[in-house]
Amino acid sequence: MNSLVYFIRPVGERDPVKIGCTTLIHDRLAGLNLWAPTKPEIAATIPGSYDLERRFHALFLAQNDHGEWFRWSPELELVISEIVAGTFDEATLPQPTWLQRPRKAKPDKPRTRKADRQITYCDEYLLRDIEGFLRKTGMAASAFGRRAVGDPAFVAGLRKGRNAYANVSRRVRSFMLDAANASPLHRAASLHGDTGSASLSPCGADPVNVEGR
Predict the structure, then answer these.
(1) Which end of the chain is less packed: N or C, by CB atoms within 10 Å?
(2) With a threshold of 0.85, does the pTM exceed it?
(3) N- to C-terminal Cα distance for the chain?
């Protein structure tokens, strides 16, 4: 089946004009009619392959809007008229060109350190567990921070709404678990089923069995 280069535009309008190539012109028109905001019509067709299509694209490159759609110009209207009249001379066309779709600009994303991406999403539970630990042990917040992570102001920072990185959160919970296991009071409480696992469990993990550790 022979291919055609077609010029299609909305009925009663000058543009936009689609310059394409197909072997099934009526199927192409029906396909465009499914999604086009206004009914399209065939303005002109000329026998030719994709090479001829690209030569028309090169001729009207300055009027290219997007894809195979072109804005109206007197030169474009003249070519359509000559094709309909059968007087168009293909020798006047330039060399073929490929239409390139404009690349979408990627928004600049703020660069973050790897540690920043490791912020734990359970800070509210971490602070709650620390407060419970401090109440049970009577340990001062500054002493806790110094012994757990080497920062006396650690707990004060959490109370002010600061975040804790995931690796810091793990260190803190490990410290609390080690301290709880070393506490005779906690071992006695665990025998009665009060292990305090809700406050000592790592965030997102199963409750820790302190007695069997």
Answers:
(1) N
(2) no
(3) 79
Contacts of 31 (CB under 8 A, 6+ apart): none
Instruction: Kindly tell me the sign of the dihedral angle through the C-alpha atoms of 203, 204, 207, 210.
Output: negative
Phi, psi of 4 (to 5 degrees): -130, 145
CA angle at residue 158 from 194 to 169, to 5 degrees?
A: 60
Report the phi/psi class of residue 173: left, alpha or beta, with left for phi > 0 and alpha for psi in -120 to 50: alpha
Task: Tell me the pLDDT tens digit for each residue of 149-190.
Answer: 999 999 998 888 887 778 888 889 889 888 877 755 544 443
User: How distant, in Å, are the alpha carbons of 118, 121, 137, 141, 151 from that of 133?
Assistant: 24, 20, 6, 10, 17
Tens digit of pLDDT for each residue in 89-127? Answer: 999 999 887 665 555 556 655 555 554 444 444 445 788
Beta partners for 42? 8
